[in-house]
Amino acid sequence: MFVHFSTFELEQRAKLAGDFELSTNNSMFGLDVNAETIYIYILRCNAGDRVPLSLEPSFKKISLSEAGPIDVRLTSNKVWILKEEGLIMQDLLYNDMREGSAHYYALQETFVADLLFQSPEHSADDLLWLAYSAFSSSKVEEIAPFVSSVFLHRLLSPGVHSNAVLRQTLGDYNKHFTYSEFGSFTVDGLKNEILSLFEHQGDYGSPVTILQWWKFFCTRYVNNWSKINAACGLLIDTFTGAIGLVRKSTISLCRGLEDVEHIVYGFYEEQNKIGLGSGNELDQKILFELLQCVRKVSQQLGKASSAIFYESLLRTPNISTEDIVHRFVKILETGYSSSIASMQISELGADTAWEKELSNHRNLRNFSADIFLSLQAICNKANSWGKVLDVVESYLKFLVPHKVVTNLNSEAIFHINGAAIVHTTSQIAKVMFESSLDVLMLLSYMTSISGQFLFVQKKDLFLSLLQICLSYDDISRVKLGLIPMIQEIVTEWHIIHFFGTTPSESPAIEDFSSQLSSLQIDSNADKRLWNGRLGKCEFPLAFILLWGKQSPSGALGNLSFERLPSPSSLISLSQEFTSWIIWGTSGEESSIFFSHSIGLALILLRHGQYKAAEYLLTLVDAYSHEEKVFESLQAVDGKLSTLFHLLGCCLVAQTQHGLLGPLKDRKVGEAVRFFFRAASVEGSSKSLQSLPREAGWLRIDFSGFPSTATWKLQYYQWVMQLFEQYNMSEAACQFALAALEQVDEAFGTMHSSSKESFGESVTSVKGRFWANIFKFTLDLNNYHDAYCAIISNPDEDSKHICLRRFIIVLYERGAVKMLCDGQLPLIGFVEKVERELLWKAERSDLSTKPNPFKLLYAFEMHRHNWRRAASYIYLHSVRLRAEAAVKDHQIKSLTLQERLNGLSAAINALQLVHPAYAWIDAPVEDTSIDKEKYPRKKPRMIMQEQSPNDVLPQKLQSYLDVEKLENEFVLTSAEYLLSLVNVKWTFAGSGKPSSDLIDLLVESSSYDMAFTVILRFWKGSGLKSELERVFVTIALKCCSSRPVPPLHGKYRRMHGLLLTSSEEEVVHDSFDAATTVQESTGSNHWETLEIYLDKYRAFHPRLPLTVAATLLSADPQVELPLWLVRIFKDNKNEGSFGMTGNGSSPASLFRLYVDYGRYAEATNLLVEYVESLASVRPADVIRRKRPCAVWFPYTTVERLWCLLDESIRLGHRTDQCEKLKKLLHGVLLNHLNIVSHTLTSILC
To answer: Where is the NUP160 helical domain (predicted)?
Structure first.
């Protein structure tokens, strides 16, 4: 056999010997090589002869095939012939034979082809159909990934993988990489590149398609491997006896065979030499025939069965190996199931599937008959099945990894040639694993067919009835004794093979120090070389076990390759390495190989191989479920707790290497389970104290805390901190709760001195754990659980800190509403929560979402604390008022709107209170006008002494009732409306505003707000005066013939004409530059004047008179609108005649006409009322006779008469005035006649 590794792994070339001609008895061997035959001559040396050297006839002749040798090497007793198909060794120490004794060695090419299912006896199709049988019907979708996993594992295993070959093969699929790029790939990177080739397949999810693709890919790979690694010559080290092959890019060394390998490969004559069995000839024959049956079972299942079984052990979660064995036995009994046959039809076609099914049935019949006959013959030869099982048991003991006790230190053993040792060990482990598995399948098959009958047709055409009949005791012995023994052996060799073929895990770059290391900063050469090897295919886990156990960096530079190891030394070194993996170096006689798994796991953990450590310890944990192994592990220094602890550490570490989602959650859950199991094992405190630091254990002195509860308290606390370090809050919370359960018992068992040395009281310890529980539940958004942790905390200081943190986090996450809607029972915490909310509100920006003052308002409203709710929301409005002063136009409007909402909420809250108590305290900030924008802290109240001569300041109002809040609401509304039109006015505090505010509101056309402010803050004559001012301004806006005179006030400024001469012109310096032309024409002003005059003349009856006087004074030619004239006419005293009335009466309108020279309107108005008096109905005549029933403004009439005369005299509108005078004369004459007649009637 050959072990194969690249020249990259040999950093120092061995000193190799060339052609040797060693003298033996004064003679030397010589070679004569031609294309077909090798002749060996003897060259003798005779010192006394005249001719000192003489050539004797051909000593030996070795015939070759047509293909000549690649290289030939001659040693003292052997000749080595290298050919393309293999290596031939010819022994020269046979004097009685011309040809001698020849041995054939297969080259590495055969091994690579076998592993990749390229040889005839390793059919890849068997892999697929066995995989179908191994998986249940519900897992058919996993077959394609399973098949790919088998190929990937074998393709990247040492001895098969070659960077140059794989790079060339990927290049055949148009995936090209440079040497540096390809050399930087880790195992995972290579797998991704290979699997990405499936994207070019049309149906890459079909198992058959996947298998066909892998067959083509592996065929190319094997061809490229043979070309790139073609053998060039032999090398032989005569000093050590090493034999090697020099290839184009690699080197292969020849190794010897293990004892069992002689038997497996058919060298049964070696049984007596190696001491197999008891030495009894009968036992040897029984074993020989049993091994023949084992080989038949293996051939029937195919070599793919071992690949499927091995891969099932690597699967996560593991496929049950018992199920795999059961399904394989079912195939041996009945062949493939009908479902497999139907799949073959759909995948291969009906004809091909039918032929394959016939072939399978024919092979199954032959196998069944042959195996029945063979087993029956074995039983007959042994006389009982018990004897057969004894031979099997002796053979199984020989398969167990031997314990080798050596006095050499590990450095002397492992520093000779690590690569050769690792590859030799992996090859032997593969053979042992498959041999043990074959024996397991034979025994399982025997127990399954026990009691069955089989008709066998013999050569004489007679039918024979055969039966394999094991007794109940024999079956029990197989199932309870031999099969568990084989399972343990299989597991042992599987672990060894796993270490030898599984690539190491790449180091994870997690922090800045690791990044410095990757940049080769602050790092030594050995460590950089070590990290560079990790994660590569040529650096399996076994290298870490070889070199990693000696120093953390691996000390690769200390390896010595001055001499190549001989074939026998490789076997011995491999045996020592295997013994160390399984049994360790303690030399103790223990039957439990798992006892050394802790040490192996620690080495793997030290170098960051968390997956491998987890896998190793998981296998041990699986066996710990069986009572025998469990009790043994309990007895071996309490290693079970250490195993559980390390498993938990491995699982936690893996969560930090890119795991996400359900896979990460599953790892965390398993870690929690293992940590709890570690703490529950008796004596775990002592065993865990012996762990090194890389095992994740912080050393704690338990000498003063002997109780189990104290140990668990500290251990749970440490695990809690571990999970907290990696932000696994849910798991950390579980251990915080577990630690909390141990506090009372732990302190109850402590002495007073121990309690003092502990440094904390029971209350503080509980408070600390409850605070941790609060933190973890809060991180998980479990707010109810977090609140329960707060109220359960016995430490008041810790409780207060947690409560504050709780409120802050609720604010940050937008979940603080749960404090206000009654979701949490705040019994005994209302004042504290309110105080914290207020503390948060006073120190928060008003833009915080949700608003803290609104939350306080909701908090108090929910508890029917109306006055407190009003106080907090009013405080919010006060802060908004302070901030609104410095805001720009747009933001200020939003701030004022928010302030209005706050004032409205405060008013609504106080209206729910009894009127006698509907008030709130005025905040301190509200009493000062010239205060800063917003003081972060409340100002101190400093009382200054006043001299008797000082004038006492006006007393500040200390309370606010509903009326004052409504006043502020009105003024704030006015400020808000002004801000919308970009007019600046600021509310300066409580009290009545100045008239300037009314002017600004009117100028901005905010009439409703102007009237609201007037009616709210002015009474009596002041109210009438302000109303007149407003209506004068509105009336002036209705006039189109003159500009509106500016109102007086410090906020007043000049504006352009409200009415323009052109409809296209726009007043640019008005309040709103976007005012439409229609609004500037004054048409809407008349409507506004009519609406508001009709609405507010009840507050001041003379308002129509003021409006009419304003209009007439503004434009002497204007005609008063009909609705305004109707107000005068309709406003006369009921039951009277003439022009009498209150306020705006017809008489007052008549006077206005006269005062402003509207003689025609005045005359027509007088004529109208005089004629109405004359046309009174007969029923109203008696009313006209009452005293003062008829009244006209006679003085004004006389004045009108005089004015008409003066106009005629002056020549102004003479004709019109004469007509009016004549009309007035007639009306007055008629009126006098009516009055005279009325007086006469009264006197009579």
So the answer is: 279-458
What CA–CA distance (Å, rounded) separates 1152 from 1169? 16
Q: Which residue has the higher pLDDT, 658 or 330?
A: 330
Instruction: Dump pLDDT digits (tens) for 236-272.
Output: 887 777 888 888 888 888 888 887 877 777 655 555 5
Cα 1115 from Cα 1109, distance rounded (Å): 10
Nearby residues of 1007 by Cβ (< 8 Å), 6 or more positions away: 1001, 1030, 1034, 1088, 1092
Query: Cα–Cα distance between 347 and 353 in angstroms, integer?
Result: 8
Concatenated DSSP letters for 303-323?
THHHHHHHHHHHSSSPPPHHH
Q: How does the average pLDDT of the chain come out, rounded?
A: 75
pLDDT for 570 = 84
Q: What is the pLDDT of residues 863-873, one digit of tens each?
A: 888 999 899 89
In order, the DSSP letters of 477-545 are: HIIIIIHHHHHHHHHHHHHHHHHHHSBPPPPP--SHHHHHHHTTSS--HHHHHHHHHTT-TTSBHHHHH
Q: Against a cut of 0.70, is the pTM above it?
A: yes
Using alpha carbons only, give the angle 1133, 1139, 1144 rounded to the nearest 5 degrees: 70
Tell me how far apart the alpha carbons of residues 1117 and 1119 are, in angstroms, rounded to a whole number.
Answer: 6
What's the pLDDT band for 792 if we cut at 50, 70, 90? Answer: very high
d(CA 663, CA 655): 9
Dist CA 537 CA 1186 (whole Å) = 130
**pLDDT tier for residue 132 given thresholds of 50, 70 and 90:** confident
Helix, strand, coil percentages for the chain (3-state, nearest 5):
60, 5, 35
- Which residue has tokens 């209350």? 763
Query: Is the separation of the CB atoms in 870 and 917 below 8 Å?
Result: no
* DSSP secondary structure code for residue 32 in this structure: E
Closest CA to 195 of 184, 205, 182, 180: 205
317 preceded by cis ω (within 30°)?
yes
Residue 754 and residue 704 in contact, taking contact as beta carbons nearer than 8 Å? yes
Instruction: Name which of 211, 81, 226 is nearest 146 in CA terms.
Output: 211
Strand segments, DSSP code E, in 163-241 are 231-237
Q: What is the pLDDT of residues 371-381, one digit of tens each?
A: 888 888 888 88
In whole angstroms, how large is the CA radius of gyration of the chain? 55
Q: Measured between alpha carbons, how far is residue 313 from residues 166, 326, 602 in Å?
A: 27, 15, 22
DSSP 325: H
Counting Cβ atoms within 10 Å, is residue 1104 exposed (0-12), middle (13-18) or buried (19+)? buried
Residue 709 confidence class, pLDDT cut points 50, 70, 90: confident
**pLDDT value of position 851:** 82
CA dihedral for 965, 971, 977, 983, sign (positive or negative): negative
| Choice among 27-36, 653-662, 701-710, 1045-1054 with the minimum mean pLDDT | 1045-1054
Contact 542, 226 (CB under 8 A): no
* Whole-angstrom distance, CA of residue 1127 vs CA of residue 1146: 9
User: Is residue 547 over pLDDT 50?
Assistant: yes
**pLDDT number for residue 1060:** 28
Both tokens of residue 531?
């990290």
Strand partners, 1191: 1138
Alpha carbon distances (Å) from 720 to 379, 516, 685, 733, 769: 61, 30, 17, 7, 10
Give per-residue burial for 942-979: e unless 16+ CB within 10 Å, then b. Answer: eeeeeeeeeeeeeeeeeebebebbebbbbbbbbbbbbb
The rounded distance, in Å, linking the Cα atoms of 1229 and 1239 is 15
Among candidates 444, 452, 447, which has minimal Cα distance to 473?
447
Q: Rounded mean pLDDT of 1216-1227?
A: 84
Nearest to 108 by CA among 241, 235, 5: 5
| 439, 398 Cβ separation under 8 angstroms | no
For residue 465, the cross-strand partners are 455
